[in-house]
Write a structure and sequence with these properties.
With 98 residues, this protein is mainly alpha-helical. It folds into two domains: 53 residues, no CATH class; 44 residues. Helices cover 68% and strands 8% of the residues. Strands 1-2-3 form a three-stranded antiparallel sheet.
Length: 98
C-alpha cells in the first residue's frame, strides 16, 4: 500500500504541474491517476476506485436507457389496449348471441 501511496503522490505532482502549464485533462481536473491504455479511465488515489470520465458515453447510455424505458412503456400500453379490444369483442359477441 505504501508503494501505491508514493506513486499517487508523484502522480499528483505531475497533475499539478500540467495544470500550471494549462494542459487540461478531465482526469487531471478531478485529481485522478491515468489508467494505462485507457483514455477515459482514471484511478482515485483516495479510494483506489476506477472512474470513467467519458461524459459523451455516459450521456449516450442515459439516452439509450430512457429510450428503452419508453419502448417498454409503449409495449405495455399496446397490450392494455389489445386486452380492452378483446373484452369489447367478447361483449359484442355475447350481446349478438342473445
Amino acid at each position: 500500500m505504501e508503494d501505491f501511496e508514493a506513486y499517487a503522490r508523484e502522480k499528483e505532482k505531475v497533475i499539478l504541474a500540467r495544470r500550471d502549464e494549462g494542459e487540461v485533462d478531465p482526469r487531471d481536473e478531478k485529481g485522478l491517476i491515468k489508467v494505462e491504455d485507457h483514455k477515459h479511465l482514471g484511478r482515485d488515489p483516495n479510494s483506489n476506485c476506477i472512474v470513467n470520465t467519458d461524459t459523451a458515453a455516459y450521456n449516450a447510455y442515459i439516452k439509450a436507457r430512457e429510450q428503452a424505458r419508453l419502448k417498454d412503456l409503449n409495449v405495455h400500453e399496446l397490450k392494455s389496449e389489445i386486452n380492452e379490444l378483446k373484452d369489447m369483442l367478447k361483449v359484442l359477441v355475447e350481446n349478438s348471441n342473445k
